Amino acid sequence: MSMTQLFSPYQLGGLTLANRIVIAPMCQYSAENGHTTDWHTIHLGNLSHSGAGLLIIEATAVEPAGRISAQDVGLWDDGTEAALAKTLKAVRAWSDMPIAIQLAHAGRKASVAQPWHGGGQLTLEAGGWETVAPSPVAFDGHARNPRALSADDIARLCERFAEAARRSVRLGLAAIELHGAHGYLMHQFLSPLSNRREDEFGGSLENRMRFPLAAFEAVKAVVPAGYPVGMRLSATDWVPGGWDLEQTLAFAQALKARGADFIHVSSGGNSGAQQIPLGPNYQVPFARAVRQATGLPTIAVGLITEAEQAEAIIGTGDADLVGIARGILYDPRWPWHAAAQLGATLKVPNQYLRSQPRQFKTLFG
């Protein structure tokens, strides 16, 4: 048996993962009215044979207005649930990889074109819609200001997250990650750059955390005991006076007190003024800080591209799991190649057994 940490099993709440590799959520901008399509069956089916320990479905909107683009996946009614059930049935027929979901609301970053069509904010005449946010402050480059959410709106959104969580459990999804990062709605409430409110949802850190924590509690309340629920966070806005690591640690502690099972640590996305020092492992120190401060399982993500790099992140205690995103789109067999390099063994479909390279005689067990 391999002695690598990357390919050692891991317990996440009541869920056992075969290894520490997580396929992070990646939007495909290919749904129809919130319904997954054949593209998602092909995409998720491909990734389900990658050898990773966990696959997280892309940011999935809890209401139509919460989609980033009109082509985003949703889970807000029986139709969107049935479409995702069909996709999952096809994938599961040939893979036993655990599949989780990321539940999301884009807030003021909603109503944009697909990235390959420029990604700009859509006009109402071109199929766009009114966006919502903590405050009527537009995201950089957007012409229309969002509508500020009322307290009643916020309560309704918490129920939307809870309802999507009920549907997720019914679909047999293995875990839920709430999207509190990258400048989307929960992050907009957390950051003083986007939250200018003067009521109980704005101002102090306690107030800015109120909605994301309420949504988290609403989700936890409707899932079974032991069912893993975590949060994706941007640890910093990379802008002076914005959201930062100190506030992130306070928020992570508050999540832990409410039963969070993991924190997925990212950064940025809430301001065009961000100054991100991109480079290998650039976000890993944030994951380490969250892990040390809370003791919660953490997922590190961001320019993790090499097997030895991922192994070191786990082996040195920087994080418990590593998230691979664009790298696994480029190389859908990334875990196979990492296992070969690290001398590990992993499970592959019977149909692919004969592809084992002769120099890696125990790669496929």
What's the N-to-C terminus distance? 9 Å
The oligomeric state is single chain
Q: Largest beta sheet: what is the strand line-up?
A: 3-4-5-8-9-10-11-12
Largest sheet: 8 strands, parallel, barrel
Strand content: 5-15%
Work out the number of β strands.
12
Q: State the helicity in percent bands.
A: 25-40%
Q: Given the C-alpha coordinates, what overall shape results?
A: globular
Tally the helices: what do you get? 11
Q: What would you report as the Rg, rounded to the nearest angstrom?
A: 20 Å
Task: List the helices and strands in order.
Answer: EEEHEHEEEHEHHHEHEHEHEHH
The mean pLDDT is: 97
User: pLDDT below 50 for ≥5 consecutive residues: which ranges?
Assistant: none
Broad structural category = alpha/beta
Please summarize what this structure is.
The protein has 365 residues and is of the alpha/beta class. It contains eleven helices and twelve strands.
Describe the structure.
The protein has 365 residues and is α/β, with parallel strands linked by helices. Helix content is 31%, strand content 14%. The protein has eleven helices and twelve strands. It has helices at 38-47, 78-92, 151-170, 185-190, 205-208, 210-220, 245-257, 284-294, 307-315, 326-330, 334-342, and strands at residues 10-12, 15-17, 21-23, 54-61, 99-104, 132-133, 147-148, 176-180, 229-234, 262-266, 298-301, 321-324. It has an eight-stranded parallel barrel with strand order 3-4-5-8-9-10-11-12, surrounded by five helices. Strands 1-2 form a two-stranded antiparallel ribbon. A two-stranded parallel sheet has the order 6-7. Helix 7 (245-257) packs across helix 8. The radius of gyration is 20 Å and the shape is globular.
